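agent> Task received from the user: take the single chain below, predict its 3D structure, and emit structure tokens. No templates, no multimer pairing.
agent> Plan: (1) validate residues, (2) run structure prediction, (3) serialize to tokens, (4) report one or two observations.
agent> Step 1 OK, no nonstandard residues flagged.
tool_call: predict_structure(input=
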Amino acid sequence: MYLSTQLSELGIPLIIALNMMDIVKKNNDFIDIKKIEAELNCKIVEVSDLKNENLDKLIEVAKKKQRKKKSTKRSKPFLKT
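)
tool_result: status=success, residues=81
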């Protein structure tokens, strides 16, 4: 999470895959995803790599973010005249 915090502070767009959420739920633990998203200003996707859960959702979120980035990207000239 430390690296994520640093990247967020630099304004680098992030998507965090929060792995092992199956274990968190099995143990009746709770992670406040919305709070972390708000603090880091990024999207968090709960996944379980072991059980292959929500990996498709992670891919979709990444594709959506990329499409959004392309649609808002403006071409800037290299040289100003």
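agent> Step 4: summary for the user.
The beta strands are 15-18, 43-46.
agent> Done.
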